[in-house]
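so the lab meeting is tmrw and i was supposed to have these ready like two days ago... anyway. pasting both below. for each one the top line is the aa sequence and the line under it is the structure tokens. i havent really looked at them closely yet so no promises
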Amino acid sequence: MISETSLRGGDGNANKQLITALLRSRLFRDYESVFSKATGLPLTLRPLEYWQLAHSGKKQENPFCALLSEHPATLSVCLAAHEQMIKHTGVLPHTVTCPYGLTETAVPVKLGDKVIGYLRIGQVLRHMPLKSDAAKAERTVSEQGVRFTRKFRDAWEKSPLIPPEKYNAIVRLLGFFGEQLSALINQIVLQSQNSEPPLVQKAREYIEKHKMDSLSLANVAKASGASVFHFCKVFKKTTGMTFTDYVGRVRLEDAKTQLLNPNRRIGEIAYDVGFQSLTQFNRTFQRVFGQSPTEFRSHLSTQKRNAKVV
């Protein structure tokens, strides 16, 4: 069970619990299976505070990377590259090439405006390896005091080769999946704990059914069978949110999905999901997600453009 502190994303342990919930979800398990079968690449989901090789032990792990992890010195180079990638990953996916010549990408997964973890892919070459590439990999390994044996060379040369255009398309798809996971974890937060009081369950059901209408606290409290005072006290204790914040979050999750459609006007979306004014919608979206609806949509457009860049 996820604690109330975890649901609010309060610390590193909270992030780990939230990511664990996603890893156990049918959505992630199905996507991971299909993704790996289609691409031959490992896909992992790791919490923000994860300082190990992302694909260690995975069936599709690059054998060269597995060899590097056996030696502390070469492993430290991998972990340093990982740290730099995470450091520079913001609201958009970030791709780097490690000192051994392999490409890795991190795709953020968020709870509201806070990054709680990353989808990770990579350990691939993006162009046909040249002699100079192999020489650089050998030199980097040797500089760490590790012999670049024939086993190392064979493993490096067998690294998966994915051309830039195809790799960028894969990253773009993962960006959309990252949005789905973000929506799912926000839904988990909204549902909070399974052992919630009946009045909260009734309130959730009523809000979900009438979320596009003008919801009043008095009507929802009445539908849940409680006085306004008792309802507010129990609802806040159970969900960690006020009635107003909860309703806003439910509507905003619908709005984020609709914002993926570039043909929908932001004003139309605001009213469709239940907000009474565009100003209220913009203000609430900014407060919850740390960016305006226009900026959110702009980031999606930037992500699409970046996916075309070699």
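ok protien two:
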Amino acid sequence: MTRYKTVNCSILFTELPLPQRPAAAAAAGFDAVEFWWPFPVSVPGDAGVDAFIAAVQDAGVQLTGLNFRLR
């Protein structure tokens, strides 16, 4: 089982825009991130989803948790 050093980027690094938080987490020594629902709407557009995925991938961290918005 892989163990990650994970941080919730919805409550840490809040001084940064959301797309910059995965890189900040990586710079702080974390190798994984989790987020509460990172979008302002229940059904985000493709561009928003793609930007979120790119931010996580570009930071080189693993996404280990993502809460969903119900409405």
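from a quick look at the 2nd one: The longest strand covers residues 62-66. The two ends are 34 Å apart (CA to CA). will dig more after coffe
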